[in-house]
Amino acid sequence: MSLIFNLQSLGVQFGRIRALKACTLRIAAGERVALVGSNGSGKSTLLRALHGLVPPAAGSLWADAQARQAMLFQRPYMLRASVLHNVALGLWLNGAPWQPAREQARQALERVGLAELAGRNARVLSGGQQQRVALARAWALRPQVLLLDEPTASLDPTAKREVERLMAEFADTGMTLVFSSHNLGQVKRLASRVIYLEQGQLIADLPTPAFFKGPLPAAAENFLKGELA
Ligand SMILES: Nc1ncnc2c1ncn2[C@@H]1O[C@H](COP(=O)(O)OP(=O)(O)OP(=O)(O)O)[C@@H](O)[C@H]1O
């Protein structure tokens, strides 16, 4: 499998806060990697570093420049404009002329089952619908790598299932997924590999069945017990 990311002793710092410390990690094409850990453990920072949004303060981060990336956030940003416009704009900003961008946006909305909402103001959609628009916006770019920061954190169970279903379908096409989640059921359903972070350090990095079977380092065991309680 070809390598998508190669991190060697990566450190990321915000002023005095060391958000990531000496993270060494390789991610290959087609993997489905879940990042888990307590609040503030560095999951978002790692995702943002992978996407090139925060610079390394130490070590190195290599990302395959040929592998197009898209990133989804917990609360997607929607312009006060139609759903179609929001999706088309993503394509236009990536260099597509406006008319083809609108056509591709329409196809992407069909892909996520939201074609009938194309003309609706994106700001008035529910959280679950907005997240699906964000998935359409990402899918329209045909990324090889999709990074998702707690994509279902604020969604109800139905919307959560819908977003999970789309994530699984995208992964089935060979897309590499790296996502953070506090939902261990979701991690079991979607991930092939689980990385546990604590205070900016990678404490465990295992295939999903091995992660849930254990044994894990004590900190990770305690986290799991707490989350499953
Ligand atoms: N822009 C920033 N400026 C300053 N400190 C930051 C910034 N972003 C993150 N941090 C700090 O870096 C550390 C890691 O935060 P991060 O958001 O990566 O954790 P997380 O695991 O994603 O947490 P959560 O589960 O709450 O989303 C925390 O101490 C956080 O306060």
TrEMBL record:
InterPro entries: AAA+_ATPase, ABC_transporter-like_ATP-bd, ABC_transporter-like_CS, ABC_transporter_ATP-bind, P-loop_NTPase, PstB-like. Signal peptide: none annotated. Keywords: ATP-binding, Cell membrane, Membrane, Nucleotide-binding, Phosphate transport, Transport. PROSITE patterns: ABC_TRANSPORTER_1, ABC_TRANSPORTER_2. Residues 5-224 form the ABC transporter domain. CDD domains: ABC_PstB_phosphate_transporter. GO terms for molecular function: ATP binding. Belongs to the ABC transporter superfamily. This is Phosphate ABC transporter ATP-binding protein. It comes from Polaromonas jejuensis.
